Amino acid sequence: xxxxxxxxxxxxxxxxxxxxxxxxxxxxxxxxxxxxxxxxxxxxxxxxxxxxxxxxxxxxxxxxxxxxxxxxxxxxxxxxxxxxxxxxxxxxxxxxxxxxxxxxxxxxxxxxxxxxxxxxxxxxxxxxxxxxxxxxxxxxxxxxxxxxxxxxxxxxxxxxxxxxxxxxxxxxxxxxxxxxxxxxxxxxxxxxxxxxxxxxxxxxxxxxxxxxxxxxxxxxxxxxxxxxxxxxxxxxxxxxxxxxxxxxxxxxxxxxxxxxxxxxxxxxxxxxxxxxxxxxxxxxxxxxxxxxxxxxxxxxxxxxxxxxxxxxxxxxxxxxxxxxxxxxxxxxxxxxxxxxxxxxxxxxxxxxxxxxxxxxxxxxxxxxxxxxxxxxxxxxxxxxxxxxxxxxxxxxxxxxxxxxxxxxxxxxxxxxxxxxxxxxxxxxxxxxxxxxxxxxxxxxxxxxxxxxxxxxxxxxxxxxxxxxxxxxxxxxxxxxxxxxxxxxxxxxxxxxxxxxxxxxxxxxxxxxxxxxxxxxxxxxxxxxxxxxxxxxxxxxxxxxxxxxxxxxxxxxxxxxxxxxxxxxxxxxxxxxxxxxxxxxxxxxxxxxxxxxxxxxxxxxxxxxxxxxxxxxxxxxxxxxxx
Length: 626
Ligand code: ADP
Ligand code: MG
Ligand code: ZN
Known about the structure:
Blueprint: H1 8-33, H2 46-54, E1 58-63, E2 68-72, E3 82-85, H3 93-99, E4 103-106, H4 114-140, E5 156-158, H5 175-189, H6 191-197, E6 204-208, H7 215-226, E7 230-234, H8 235-238, H9 245-260, E8 263-268, H10 271-274, H11 288-303, E9 311-317, E10 335-338, H12 344-355, H13 366-371, H14 378-394, H15 402-416, H16 425-444, E11 449-455, E12 466-471, H17 480-501, H18 509-524, H19 558-585, H20 587-600, E13 602-604, H21 605-613
Parallel strand pairs: 1-4, 6-9, 6-10, 7-8, 8-9
Antiparallel strand pairs: 1-2, 2-3, 5-7, 11-12, 11-13
Magnesium ion (MG) binds at residues 215-216, 268, 316.
């Protein structure tokens, strides 16, 4: 049985409180006994008392509401001289006593004595506090922490030692993130150099990416590379039962960290405290606690500025869009590092890391495994290798074989299917053509964007693949041709599916939504329709800010409504025709790029540029200024 040292403290405090309580209880009892001292005085009948008064034997009497105590003059030897009797209602008594020359006095009206008053005020609250404390202790779970220590930060501290140190070598497939974080390592190692030149060391770095991609691992690696202590706490641990506890914990955490600086604080699940404050308005129930915690975090991050002893706050989230804008301001989490799911070569490297930890059979081909695990995050791959090792061990084999790995893929996929999408090979093919369709049309159409990257690595639930278009220049105004080009580009994915497979899938739903939105805005908001003229048919209402994409329409006649629908339809149809003719005209290129991307999953940079440069714009698809 392990008895934790901490257990003693709260118990002793408990004991003291109990002792005080018991003391008060005894006093209370005692004070109840006080009037009962009279019980020792012999009681006599009232008639005897009157007789004695009449006979002049009574020297003095003391009258209270429920007792008369009196002293007699001629008590016999050994007999008590003080007697008591119970008074009866007798208005003549004072007169009689006076006549006989008895010295008498009445007690003041009965008043609660000071002690009982005090006790009645002190004891109930004490009991109340005691009960509260009891529950608070249970609430803390385990009771290792005292009732009053719930404001202590629960951060765990790792001081990296040589053996358990995590380094960048343990993380693979996230090279861009590593490059960025390398800079942070340098800040932590040589703060003087930066301080000397007057450079401001960043305080906060936000790691953004889906679960299991190695955000926690990366921040541990930063601490490991820089050989500094590492505080780790989850956002949800800040926010608990007691209002104000979260804020106190933040304060405590930074207090501790400053003592150990230079060091790293890692806040996992930042979204648990950092949710947009305005976004949560109107939600019933207490966000106070979270808000206080968030405010405290912002205050602390603004507060410290010791250049030579940096405390760098790393945080992780998979919902960056929900974060409060205040968190992302300069001096806070102004750096953001994307930690994305690994591509083919990244997956191979991660598999290599974990395969090194198990015994692989001769001739196992990890490339094949990497190819079959599109969409897996680092954690899934680690899990996969472990599953394979378990399978091998169960079959009493001493090495992991290709078959084990293949079976493990299926197991992991089965577990993943609910969480995120894992593409089947035939789906992957559809996604490849779809994305290349977007890319070719996007390259040839105006709209101010250049196609920078095509990927068929699934990202979350919504997008199975994506084509990244980067604007070539800042643009505030779009011409009618630009917008028509954008619609055509959005329809490029579906058009490619039509051309290659002769049918369409559900994957294009989001594209169609956006294309239709643009067309509606062109007609209804921007007045770009020749037949309907420069009228704004959509009302710009406040509802836009509540996230509804569709504006309410102005009151229009049925005929106008029909005309609007007709125009919108016409815009989308023409764009579709354009996309189809572009893809028909570049059919070979479509096949070529799709084949490449099925191999590599990602095409970007110069390679993509060269491929797209060979595309041609058919004359019927040329957009002419109206
Ligand atoms: P996150 O914090 O992004 O949810 P973690 O860092 O907790 O993910 O990853 C969980 C585990 O998965 C890690 O401990 C590590 O074993 C493995 N892992 C995840 N990503 C990688 C990666 N890029 N390289 C190597 N291992 C990884
Ligand atoms: Mg994590
Ligand atoms: Zn698409």
